[in-house]
Amino acid sequence: MGIQGLLPFLKKIHDHVNIAKFSGCTVAIDAYCWLHKGAFSCAEKLALGEKTDQYVYYCMKYLEYMLKNNLKPIMVFDGCHLPSKKDVEKNRREKRNMYKKKAAQLLREGNRAEARECLQRCIDISPEMALRLMEVCRERGIDCIVAPYEADAQLALLSKSGIAQIIVTEDSDLLLFGCERVIFKMDHFGNGVMIEKSRLNEVMEIQNGFYTFDKFRYMCILSGCDYLPSLSGIGLVKACKVFKLARQADLKTLLKKFPTTYLKMPLTVSDEYIDGFIKAYNTFLYQLVFDPLKKRLVPLHDYEDGIEPNDVTYAGPYIPQEKALQIALGNINIYSMEKFANFNPDNFVPKKASKKKSESLHMLSIWNKNYRIRPKTHLTETQNRPNLKGKEVVIKTKIHRTEIVKPADDSLEVKTDGELTGMYQNSPKRKLQEISSSEDEQSPCKRRRKNSSSEEELSPKKFTKSPRKPEFFSSLVEADVDSSICENAEEKNDKENDIVSPRRNRFALASPSKKTKFNLNAPKAKEVVFASSSSPCIKTEPVAEDIKVDQKLEKSTSVQSDIETKQEIKNTLPQLKKDNSKPSNKSAFSWNRFKSSSQNSIESSPHSRNPFKRVVSEKQITSTHTKSLGPIHKSSSEPSMARSDSQKSLDNLSQVSSHSNLYSIDSDCLPKPEDMDDLSDCESSVRNSETNNSSQNLGSQNSSQSSGRLTNNSSQDISNQDNSKSSGRQINKVDSCESLLSQVIPECPEEDDDDIIVVKTEPGTSPQESKVKVKNVQKASMMSGCRVSGLSRGKKKLPAVDIKQQSLKDMFSKFSNNRNEKPKLKHEKSNEDLNATPTTDNSVLSLKGGIQRCLLP
DNA sequence: GCCTTGTGTACAT
DNA sequence: TACACAAGGC
């Protein structure tokens, strides 16, 4: 989700680049983004449980481009769900389930196109899919790492530690985590939008010296992030205004008074919101990540004095080191927490890795003992660009043919002088002139700014248009530019100029009108605390729940669902030749996960706690204060608020405000690592209670199903479900969904002898009545000359697929060719027949469009 | 008029 | 997941 509207908000500092320019660098990639996009193209197959590698090929296209351009990609995968993000994940899961139900309903109604849309919306990337991609990547010599929690934080670690110089993602959160350079919206040809951390101040328009990265982070959190919903009526613009005007106020006081002081809004900020704010901030700071070089689980940033790991378990409960390593290597299924691979980097030899041996140690695998981080000198040049004034240098600049300036109707349009000037200045020829011209006294930064407005009007692919790129990248990459150039005296001048250059902070020279009204010397003690905690600004649902409990409960629910499924199959499918009782985990449409996903029984767990409920013990207050507090009313005269200062000022709040223990989130309210080992008892008790609940519900559900009626408004039901409903109700909901799908399974009046698969249509009906046959599949496939998914020609039986997936397949196939005129084949009915009384005969034939192919003359 | 918020749509092939 | 757009509040 990220920060809503952040990327458009940062448009001013969008830098259109091609990643090939970073040749020789390491690129860390948010693998989930590509997987998700790749899965989009094969959503149906995934939903139907068919084997496909389409999403792998999709990702490899990007990676091949990078390898070709001498980049070292590191694929970073998501790990366990973070307790802080539990609500977000739950909502996503519910949405996916809703769309699954909707898809089934639409298929039943014959609306295949819309059903496909729904299936695309309920794409879920399973650990198995991630594993498949990892396997292919490793064969190609590409490093992969699974984050203990969020890939975002893991990517940030790679950036922070210097392992990766560039991050590729679609998630704007990466900027909050502090990544130096992030490329968004990258296409297969490496074109994307780069945002640099060092330029964020240009957007916030904060006076020179008053900007800190923390302010940017505060702004984003205030506007609403994954860990904290925004206050009503507060978006990025208003949040920016607040931190633009605010100077030395400590955070808690600032949050209390900002609506009236800076925004003139009648908004009351509750203490709960402020607590949530601090937690969100800490989650960005201290989320647990895996350091591949130390091979240890570490917080993204070192804990400040006064903060103990147990205080911030919402940023990721501790995981034992060996387990964390196995997760990082991709050997543990992060859903089931069971081992499902056995990758050992010490023994592994990639088969298809590039044979070209690099001498650079930073190009080795990060798991290799000889791996070394790429020297920083190459990249610092990008920040302190050499002043080329008076220098004669040879610059190699690759002109990328990918840029096509679409003439559109330019020729027909009447251009203004400004536009024409802009076009001229942006023409490639002109740019080369600019670069090579030593007479141009403008700094690269000034040129860039000058042209930025006209760039907007020209081309959708602006990356090659930016006049800053050639010298920027040539300094970074091309060896022809003497790197020592930036070490001479002129660099010093440049640095001095940089202070006032627009590159650093174009708003640094604030006009008098922009002067802050904020009194820098106002003592914090005088800040008025607007005491009102009654505002229902934020949800106070538990977030810091133990992830282990979550996983175990999820598992236990899925065990329960397995039991139910098996029982159903036992009762209704005596003739089933293969055991389908265990739904395929490989499917994005996995019923196992579908069922387990609706669990919210954790809320009823004795271990679930409300982190917002604060119980402050005297011991904690003492420890927090003695450890972390500086002078209480220290009024810094320094304009720049360093992180440690802000941290201290935050700590000070706990004394000033009535709410003590600001930083020390009460450990009594949060699960501790040692708690995690004691939860197995909880698991069994919860499982038992769920079994009871579900069995009762199952009974009632069956009785309602036996009436032969569909709960037609089931999709509405699910969307209207109150989150606070009991676990029993949740299971009921799942059952109702199951019933829906059981209803969509087609019936066939005919009987035949070969290869019969029987699936349940309705509970209570006899197997004989509910038989649906797939007739002579092999014959049909051979006759038609088409390939039937999952069925080799030598085989006679259908592949063992989940029954409900099979039913969906049937539904799909029934409606897949409705619009296509085609002659009848043997065993095949007309379209009208299909619509009237669908049979699975056709479904087998028409899978994967095989019908069309076999009809070719 | 500015800003937030909700809805619809594209994403790949 | 992000963007574009429209509606609605202030």
UniProtKB/TrEMBL annotation:
Fetch the InterPro entries from UniProt. Answer: 5-3_exonuclease_C_sf, EXO1_H3TH, HhH2, PIN-like_dom_sf, PIN-like_EXO1, XPG-I_dom, XPG/Rad2, XPG_CS
Instruction: For this UniProt record, give its keywords in alphabetical order, as a comma-separated list.
Output: DNA damage, DNA excision, DNA repair, DNA-binding, Endonuclease, Excision nuclease, Exonuclease, Hydrolase, Magnesium, Metal-binding, Nuclease, Nucleus
- Using the UniProt record, give the first listed, main subcellular location: nucleus
Q: What is its EC number?
A: 3.1.-.-
Give the GO molecular function terms. Answer: 5'-3' DNA exonuclease activity; 5'-flap endonuclease activity; DNA binding; metal ion binding
Keyword Hydrolase tagged:
yes
- Domain called XPG N-terminal: residue spans: 1-99
- One of the GO biological process terms: mismatch repair
Ranges for domain XPG-I come to 138-209
Q: Where is the composition biased (Low complexity)?
A: 692-727
SMART domains in the record, alphabetically?
HhH2, XPGI, XPGN
- What GO cellular component entries does it have? nucleus
Q: Where is the composition biased (Polar residues)?
A: 582-608, 637-664, 682-691, 804-818, 833-843
Cofactor note from UniProt? Binds 2 magnesium ions per subunit. They probably participate in the reaction catalyzed by the enzyme. May bind an additional third magnesium ion after substrate binding.
Disulfide bond recorded as keyword: no
Q: Where in the cell is it found?
A: Nucleus
Name the cofactor(s).
Mg(2+)
Q: Quick one: where's region Disordered?
A: 416-469, 544-732, 761-843
Q: Where is the composition biased (Basic and acidic residues)?
A: 545-555, 819-832
Task: Relate the protein's function as given in its record.
Answer: 5'->3' double-stranded DNA exonuclease which may also possess a cryptic 3'->5' double-stranded DNA exonuclease activity. Functions in DNA mismatch repair.
Report the family membership: Belongs to the XPG/RAD2 endonuclease family. EXO1 subfamily.
The protein in question is named Exonuclease 1
